[in-house]
Specification:
Shape: globular
Strand order of the largest sheet: 2-1-3
Domain G-protein coupled receptors family 1 profile: 41-290
CATH architecture: Up-down Bundle
CATH superfamily: Rhodopsin 7-helix transmembrane proteins
Order of helices and strands: HEHHEHHHEHHHHHH
InterPro entries: GPCR_Rhodpsn (IPR000276), GPCR_Rhodpsn_7TM (IPR017452), Olfact_rcpt (IPR000725), Olfactory_GPCR (IPR050516)
Helix content: over 70%
Function: Odorant receptor.
Number of strands: 3
Largest sheet: 3 strands, mixed
Strand content: under 5%
Organism: Mus caroli (Ryukyu mouse)
Membrane topology: Multi-pass membrane protein
Distance between the termini: 55 Å
Number of helices: 12
Low-confidence stretches: none
Radius of gyration: 22 Å
Oligomer: single chain
């Protein structure tokens, strides 16, 4: 009934990837667990990089803002999908869809920008260590983060304004679990989506420029690392650089393929996996990836967990 009447509604119908009720519940629970794990991981990173003195360098300052962006990005799409799946209703209003586009685009672009800043920070730390304190001074780091958030807000505003200019025709069915711009473009009337197509092309070009900057930074980094005489020094550099490079590769490759690949008229397994890879997996895995080979973070997390365990045990013993 919802599908039949969707053309008369002002909003859209998020179809997900199956009409099977059991699969809907399974996906909703899977997304919920992923969201809780991702939120917990990012919250831990935010907490320890804020409270612990040994994590107050520019690298961890940028990592904190990456976690804030990741946590925000997860909160834009996943809770709404879980709620819709459990309520057995994929309807999303026009206003909710536009807000989702704004915040998702803003946070996604912010993540791309902060990853670019982080690569430059690693380049300065490894290739120009004597000038690091001057180039990456606290004031400049603050300005860099401010530019990241401002650029995210601007990109979100431009994308949303472009989307508002689209006239939608036919069944307003989105074969996705959130309001994804490539899917919305399929619903537009002919010749009226040139503005948003141009915006997507422009932002893709800017993203490619950022990715090129990241690649250039790592070319210089690796050329410097391989000239290091000490194997211990090389290992230490790789422990901080490889996680960042993996995060960048996963985020950029899946996002670019999803936005540049023509969408089909119906949901496919490939589109489902791609949407997961660039919307859910990066913000969920980032805390784990950055912690696996970083001994400082692992040490602080162990102290935090031990302190939390001791506090809970003390409270429990006092009460009972």
């Amino acid at each position: 009934m919802i599908v039949e009447n969707i053309t008369a509604m002002s909003g859209f119908l998020l179809m997900g990837f199956s009409d099977n009720r059991e699969l809907q519940i399974f996906r909703a629970l899977l997304f919920l667990v992923t969201y809780l794990l991702g939120s917990a991981g990012n919250f831990i990173i935010i907490t320890i990089t804020t409270l612990y003195p040994q994590l107050q360098s520019p690298m961890y300052y940028f990592l904190k803002h990456l976690s804030i962006l990741d946590l925000s990005s997860l909160s834009v799409t996943v809770p709404q999908y879980v709620d819709s799946s459990l309520a057995q209703s994929g309807y999303i209003s026009y206003g909710q869809c536009m807000l989702q586009i704004f915040f998702f685009t803003a946070f996604a672009w912010g993540e791309m920008a902060i990853l670019t800043v982080m690569s430059y920070d690693r380049y300065v730390a490894i290739c120009l260590p004597l000038h690091y304190d001057v180039i990456m001074s606290p004031r400049k780091c603050t300005w860099a983060v401010a530019a990241v958030w401002l650029s995210g807000g601007i990109s979100g505003t431009l994308y949303t304004a472009s989307t508002l200019s689209i006239r939608f025709c036919g069944d307003k069915i989105i074969h996705q679990f959130f309001c994804d711009i490539p899917q919305l473009l399929k619903l537009s009337c002919s010749n009226d989506d040139l503005v948003i197509t141009g915006m997507v092309s422009f932002m893709s070009a800017v993203s490619f420029a950022c990715f090129t900057g990241i690649v250039i930074s790592y070319v210089h980094i690796f050329s410097t690392v391989f000239r290091m005489p000490s194997a211990e020094s090389r290992s230490k550099v790789f422990s901080t650089c490889l996680p960042h490079l993996f995060v960048v590769s996963l985020f950029v490759s899946t996002g670019a393929f999803a936005y540049l690949n023509p969408t089909s008229d119906s949901s496919t397994v490939l589109e489902f996996l791609l949407s997961i890879f660039y919307t859910v997996l990066p913000p969920t895995l980032n805390p784990v990836i950055y912690s696996l080979r970083n001994e400082t973070i692992k040490s602080v997390v162990r102290k935090l967990l031990l302190r939390t365990k001791f506090t809970v045990r003390t409270i429990f013993s006092y009460c009972f």
